[in-house]
Amino acid sequence: MATGADASLATLAAAIQEAKPRGLVDLYLERVADTAWELEGGTVVGCRTLLREAAAARFRGLLRSADGITRLALAEILGIPGRAVPPVTLPPFPATPELACLSPGTLGAVRTVRVRSRWAAVLARGDLRVLGGPALCELTLPDGQRTLTTWPPPADLPLPPPPTSGRAAPDPGPVCCLLAPPAAAALLHEAVGHALEGDTLVQPGRRPALHPGTPVTDAAFDVVDDPTRAELPGAYWADDEGTPAHPTVLVRAGSVAGLLADREVAERCGVPAGNARRSSAHAWPRPRVSNLVVTAREAPSTPCREGAHIEVASVRAGAFEPLTGELRLLVRSAWALRGGRRVRPLGPFVLAGQAERVLAGMRPAGPPAATGEPGWCGKAGDMVPVGAVTPWLVVSGLEVR
Amino acid sequence: MNWSSAAALPALQRAADELAPRADRFEVFAKVGETLHLQRRAGEGPLRRIAREVGVGCRTVAGGRVGFGAAAGSDAGCGRDAARASLASLLPGPDPLPPLALLGTGGQPAPPADTLFELCEQLFADLSHALRRVARRLQLGEVRLLCGRSRASLLTGDGFAAAAESTACVVEVVAAATEGPWRFFQAAASSPAQLDVAGLASHVEEVALLTARGSPPPRALTDVLLAPPVAAVLVGALAQYLMAGRLAAGRRTPHVAPAWRLADERGGPGGLLPLPFDGEGLPSRRIPLLEGGRAAGRVGTWAEAQRFGCPPGAALRPSYQQPPVAGPANLVVSVTAGLAGGELLERLHHGIFAAVPAGTIAVDDGGRFALPVAAVTVRGGRFAAAHPVAELRGSFRRLLAGLAAVGADSRSFSLACGVTTPSLLVRTLEVG
User: What distance in Å separates the CA atoms of residue B299 and residue B87, rounded to the nearest whole number?
Assistant: First the structure.
C-alpha cells in the first residue's frame, strides 16, 4: 500500500516532468537522522541529534543544492516557478535508536557511539527511485580511532585493538610487513579501490596507468567492489544516480578487470555504471568504493608471521596520491617480529610506497575477515562509508618513514 | 531568494519559542551559508556548483540536564524540529553555556557584497586567462575556485542576540611542467578583489618548472626554508596540537625560538576568517599561541574551560549541525622584521628550499610530522639541485626551537582553518 510519502513523491515526479526544467539530469532528495552519544566508563554522559534534509538538482555542468526540502527550495534549485511544485511529504525521520543494541562490554570500551539512518531518492527521466542501505553505527575508541558497522550491530562485533605504546618506531627504510585484515583493508582501499575509481583513472597525468588486463598483483588475488553485501557498511541497493547496485570485479587473478563508474565514466569508458556516491546532497555524485571484498587462493588458515619484520594490526589513516601513485599508511598498532614471533610493540610510524610496487609485492598470509576499517573514506573532502573483507597479507615494497 | 534576504529567522524564532517554556537556559544558533564552486579540468567543460546550507542548532539546559539538537532548513518547522531534538536528547550534565555577562561581540566586519558570486565568476575567467598565458610551458590539470559567504545568528534564553557575516574565496590549480609531476597550488583571501591571479599564475609556472626533474635529496639534518604554502600546512598542524594542550602535556618545557609570533587572530583585522564572536558568543579576542619565547597551553570552549581550567574563547561553529568545538580559526604568523626572498636564501646559505607541498601531512600522537614537498637544494644561497619529491620530517618541538627568520611575503591559505604566514627559515629539520 502506498504511503503518504510515496504518493507525494509520485505527485512531485509528475509535476517536475510536466514543468520540464531545462537540461535537468536528476533531482536528488535526502533525509539523514544522526544521533551521537558520548560515554564515560560505559555511562552515557551526552547526546545529540541532527535531522538533515536537502535536495540537489543536477544539470549538465551544474549542481544546485539547498538544505530544507520545501516547495520554494525545490523550485529555486530546479529553476521553475514555485506554483509548479506541489507540497512535498517525505518519510518521517526514524525513531531514536536504542543503545541497548550494544553490549555493556562494547559500551564500556568506546568514547562515542553514533548511529546514522539515511533515506534518499533520485528522480531521473520521470522515474523516481528510492535508494537504500543499512543504518550505520560508528564507534570511537578512547584514542580517537573510529570503526564502522551496520546497525543494529552483530552480536560478535569486533573492536579495533588498542594502539601499541612502544616508544621506538622501526628504523627507516624498506620493510616486509604482515598486515592484519584492518590494515590490509586500508592498504587495498587506497591502492586498488581509489586507483580504480573511474574519475581518478581518467585524470590527466595520473599514474600508474591501469587498463583492463594490466597485471597489478599476485595471481592469487581477486578484488570485487560489492555494494550488495548488506552486512557491510558500504552497502546500498541503488547508487546515488539510481542505478541498481551490483558487484564489480576490479581485479581477477591479479590483473585489472574493471573500474568503478558513475554514468558519465560509464559512457566514456564503455563499462557498467552503478558506483556513483555522494557524501551529501551538496556534493557531485562520483565513482567511489563501497565494500572491497578480497579473496585469495591458497591463503593460510592461520596468520603466517615467518619472514615478516613488522606486524601491523591497525592503521589510523591511509592516503593515496593519484598524481604520484604514492600510498601512505599511518600505523597505529604494530609489533616488531623476529623468527615469526612478536618481540616488542612499536610506536606510531608511517609506511609509504609506490602503489604499483606494493601491489606487486603482496601475498596472502592468513584467513579473511570482515573489518570496520577503513570506515569513512574521504576524497577531496567528500566522506562516504566503506567496508571490507580481506585476508591477512604479507607485503614488500613498503618502507618505514 | 537572494542573499540579502537569506536568513533563518523563522527557524531561529520558532526554536526559541519552543525552548523558552521548557528550558532553564538555551542557545539557538542559525547559520546560512552559500557557496559557489567553479571547476575546470583539462579537456572537459566547466562545472559549476551552487549550494545553500542552512539550519538551526539548539543547546538546552533543563533540570540539571543538557542536550543538543539540530535540523536543516530555514522555516519554522525546522526550528521546531531542532528544539524538540534538543529536548529529546537531555541527559544529566554540567551547564555548557557561558554566562550572559561574558557574551558580546568584538565588532562587525563589513558585510559581504551581494555581487560576490559575479565577482568570482570574473575572477575565474581572469585566472583561466592568466594560466593560458603560461600554458605553453605547463600542463594544466584542473583549475578550481570556491567562494562562500555565511551569516551566523546566535540567540540565547538569557537575552543575548548577535549576528555575523563572513566571506572567503579560494583558488586552486593543479599543474605540471611538461616532464614533471603534478603540483597543487592554492591561494585564499577574504574577497576576490584581494586575490592576485596573475601573480598566482606566475608562481605556478615558476615552481612547476623549478621542481620538475631530479631525485630525492640524501637523508640529512639540514636547514630548511619553508615557502608560505609549506609553512601554512605545518603552522596549521602545530596550532591544532598547541590548542589541544598536547605540547603542554609533555614532560619537558619546549624551547620556543624568539622569532615565533603565532596567534589565532579571531577578531581580525588580519588573516582570512575574522569574526566578531566565537562559536558560543564570547567576543573574539586574540589568542597568542607562540610569543615571547613561550608556547600557549590548551584553549577551549566554555565547557572545556570549566572542566580543564583552561581559558575559553576558542569555540568554532563551522556549521549549525554540531555543538561548538575548540580549535584555531584565523591563524596569523606576525611579521615585524621580515626578510626579502633573496635575504632569506642568503641566510639559509646551505640547505633546502621547500617550495610547495607534494602530499598530505601526517602527524603522530607524539607530535612528529612527515610532509612530502617539492624542494630545491640551496648551496651558497643559490639554487643547486631540484627534488620533485622530498620529505620533511621532525617534531613540533624541533620546529618551535628552530625558527631563525621569517619572510616578508605573507599569504593566506584555507586549510582546516584560515592560515596566514610568510616564509619560515627553520634550522635543522630532517629531510630525505
Answer: 29
The per-residue pLDDT for range A337-376, each reduced to its tens digit, is 999 999 999 988 889 999 889 999 999 999 999 988 779 9
Which pTM was predicted? 0.90
Interface check for B50 against chain A (CB to CB < 8 A): the answer is yes
- Residue whose C-alpha cell reads 609509504 in the numeric block: A352
B116 φ, ψ to 5°?
-55, -45
Share of chain B residues as helix, strand and coil, in percent rounded to the nearest 5 = 25, 40, 35
Query: Best of A28, A37, A48 to disrupt the B interface by mutation (most B CBs within 10 Å)?
Result: A48
pLDDT digits (tens, 9 = 90+) for B350-405: 999 999 999 888 888 788 898 999 999 999 999 999 999 899 999 999 999 999 99
Which chain B residues contact residue A348 at CB under 8 A?
364-366, 368
The reply to whether residue A48 touches residue B359, judged by beta carbons under 8 angstroms, is no
- Which among A164, A323, A349, A354 is the top mutation candidate for probing chain B, defined by the most B β-carbons within 10 Å of its own β-carbon? A323
Which cell goes with A205?
597525468
Under DSSP, is residue B309 helix (H, G, I), strand (E, B) or coil? coil
The C-alpha cell that represents B80 in the structure block: 521546531
Residue B7: left (phi > 0), alpha (psi -120 to 50), or beta? beta
Digit-coded pLDDT (tens) for B192-219: 889 999 999 999 999 999 998 899 899 8
What does the alpha-carbon distance between residue B404 and residue B282 come to, in Å, rounded to a whole number?
35
Contact list in A for residue B41 (CB cut-off 8 A) is: 203-204
Omega before residue A208 within 30° of 0, cis: yes
Helix (DSSP H) and strand (DSSP E) numbers for chain A? 7, 22
Contact criterion met (CB below 8 Å) for B313 and B330: no
Distance of CA B25 to the CA centre of its chain: 32
Detail the DSSP E strand segments found in B292-367.
Answer: 294-295, 315-316, 325-326, 330-333, 351-357, 362-363
All three cell numbers of A155, joined, read 552480536
C-alpha cell at A255: 590483473
ipTM surpasses cut 0.90: no
